[in-house]
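User: Predict the structure for this protein chain, please.
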Amino acid sequence: MKIYLVGGAVRDALLGRTVHERDWVVVGADEQQMRERGFSPVGKDFPVFLHPDTREEYALARTERKSGHGYGGFSVHAAPDVTLEQDLLRRDLTINAMAESESGELVDPYGGRADLDARLLRHVSPAFAEDPLRILRVARFAARYHHLGFTIADDTMALMRQMVEEGEVEHLVAERVWKEVSRALTEPAPDVFIRVLRQCGALAILLPELEALFGVPQPPKYHPEIDTGEHVLLALRAAPAELPVRFATLLHDLGKGVTPEEILPSHRGHEVAGLPLVREVCRRWRAPKQLAALACGVCEYHLHCHKAFELRPQTLMKVLRALDALRRPERFEQFLQCCEADARGRTGLADRDYPQADYLRAVRAAAAAVGPEALMAQGFAGAELGKALDRARIEAIAAVKKRHQESDKDA
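Assistant: Here is the predicted structure, written as structure tokens:
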């Protein structure tokens, strides 16, 4: 029995990055031997075990053979006679197909170290084409390592295009797609993930609502970049690296893809037009409910945020209610972050001020400070209490608006 550190831990150590988790491959052993050493089996489809002390994953060396479509369409062979080189051959990229022996020796049969030095994402073998999920993984690695100068090898991109053309991407299940998308959106360059999917043709299948935005014009006065798809990618890059914020930012302008051609480059009503599209994406990818709620809120109300200074106190209160801002301050903060990313995701405007966010924070705080206790003491109850509470909160918002207008005059 020989044990090797494999995959991302080897790759990131060579890149000088922090190693967060370690995976191991065991060569020359079977399931019974692993159990005898105290390892606990956890893999349903693959022979994977947890170490009795560290709880790290140890997998028996295995080979795979294509037996159907999609991620699960494989037959797996794990036996003591499977070599380390055979196990590494089934991996996606050469930089992920390296191993380290217990003595610290690098095992690199497919040129992963050279590709690391060349900053190249290259597939290990033609077997790459057997798993369409690898298209998303390559796009995700491109987003993660873009700042280090990594690019995708031409032959790998050509293979990814071929896989898309042959319909393999259509067999991906929602859970696997969401897992890769959710990880990719928190990488340093999430826009690169989308660009790679566009380049190989996968975006048109996985997210046609976003693909439809590229080439759609916007008014140059507000959007110097003009192209709606490019604006979304700029906004995505400007957004904080939190999944809810970036996911909502990614979907915020889907309505512009269905704007009637005769009114372009205006996109009047795109917020409402985008809502069913956002809901469909969330349903198709089975996005968590809280993320879906934020994405819908940003889609419908991001223009209200941009125009916050122009809104009447009654309208501001309506927006707070619609976004459930008083009960969910964390989500409201995420909403503001999305709107700020939208405002800054424009050519030449990445560093612009966005005072609307602080203004709406003050508006929310003023409304939240008004509780029902004093009104109940005055005798209000039931529906009348609700109306009185609403009026009191609108008055508090009006006071914030007045202070803002006065400070503007003084300035």
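Residues 1-110 form a domain with the Beta Polymerase; domain 2 fold (CATH 3.30.460.10).
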